């Protein structure tokens, strides 16, 4: 099926999943273009998608430099951000969706202040408790709330990666917990700070469960484009 056909099918699945969960809010599809060549970003844009997600700063920098002007295209950092790549990430991306610790939030805040910018972010929460995953401990309210005191980052919401398990109950539990954390944090954030609205959860294999649990953003790669292409490896050949 074509990209446009895949997108139509995905949007229909999102609507049906939301109905099952009792939700009807808009959902932003972030096209995960990591490892795909720049042409795929252009194809996504032509199909009507206006948000892409990249995992690596170096790869994104190379690909973005090869893109034509694509008005309104939102570029989001969805992979782990290394401290030594913060300045470059600030210049490349409209949002950094993978702030996984108070330490990283602090460093980003300092660099953003030095650049005279305020950076939109999502806080990554480890809702499954898996040791192999990064992210704020879901039970550490103090560190999560401390991020709201940083003046040069604007926290728009929370993000999580579902557990790599076959048991859909565990996946649902992780997504449901993220929604509960957002609601709890919104009741405790400092007065005058905008409430968080975004819940970025769900990927190609579990996005329907995420939509049933109230997700507002979904990160899709394989469901849109098929198997990943090793873009950086191809360039080196």
Describe the structure.
By secondary structure, this protein is of the alpha/beta class. The protein has a single domain, classed as Alpha-Beta Barrel (TIM Barrel), CATH 3.20.20. Helices cover 42% and strands 18% of the residues. It is built from ten helices and nine strands. Strands 1, 2, 3, 4, 5, 6, 7, 8 and 9 form a nine-stranded parallel β-sheet that branches. Helix 2 links the parallel strand 1 and strand 2. It is globular. The two termini are 29 Å apart. 40% of the residues are buried.
Summarize the structure.
The chain is of the alpha/beta class.
Q: Which spans have pLDDT < 50 for at least 5 consecutive residues?
A: none
Number of helices: 10
Helix content: 40-55%
CATH class: Alpha Beta
CATH superfamily: Alanine racemase
Strand tally, please?
A: 9
Work out the radius of gyration: 17 Å
Query: Strand pairing plus helix content: what structural class?
Result: alpha/beta
- Sequence of secondary-structure elements: HEHEHEHEHEEHEHEHEHH
Please state the average pLDDT score.
93
Using the alpha-carbon principal axes, give the shape.
globular
Strand residue percentage: 15-25%
**Architecture per CATH nomenclature, i.e. the level-2 architecture:** Alpha-Beta Barrel
Main sheet makeup: 9 strands, parallel
Number of domains: 1
- Which oligomeric form is depicted? single chain
CATH topology call: TIM Barrel
State the distance separating the first and last CA atoms: 29 Å
């Amino acid at each position: 099926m074509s990209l446009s056909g895949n997108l139509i099918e995905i949007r229909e699945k999102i609507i049906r999943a939301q109905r099952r969960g009792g939700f009807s809010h808009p959902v932003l599809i972030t096209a995960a273009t990591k490892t795909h060549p720049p042409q795929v970003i252009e194809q996504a844009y032509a199909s009507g998608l206006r948000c892409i997600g990249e995992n690596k700063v170096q790869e994104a920098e190379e690909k973005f430099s090869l893109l034509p002007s694509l008005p309104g295209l939102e570029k989001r950092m969805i992979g782990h951000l290394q401290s030594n790549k913060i300045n470059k990430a600030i210049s490349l991306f409209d949002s950094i969706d993978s702030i996984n610790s108070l330490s990283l939030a602090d460093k980003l805040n300092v660099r953003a202040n030095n650049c005279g910018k305020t950076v939109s972010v999502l806080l990554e929460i480890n809702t499954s408790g898996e040791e192999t995953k990064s992210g704020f401990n879901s039970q550490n309210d103090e560190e999560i709330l401390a991020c709201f005191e940083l003046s040069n980052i604007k926290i728009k919401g929370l993000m999580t990666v579902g557990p790599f398990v076959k048991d859909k109950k565990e996946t649902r539990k992780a997504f449901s917990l993220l929604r509960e954390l957002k609601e709890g944090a919104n009741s405790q954030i400092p007065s005058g700070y905008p409430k968080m609205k975004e819940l970025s959860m769900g990927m190609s294999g579990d996005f329907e469960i995420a939509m049933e649990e109230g997700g507002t953003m979904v990160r899709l790669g394989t469901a849109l484009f098929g198997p990943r292409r090793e873009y950086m490896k191809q360039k080196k050949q």
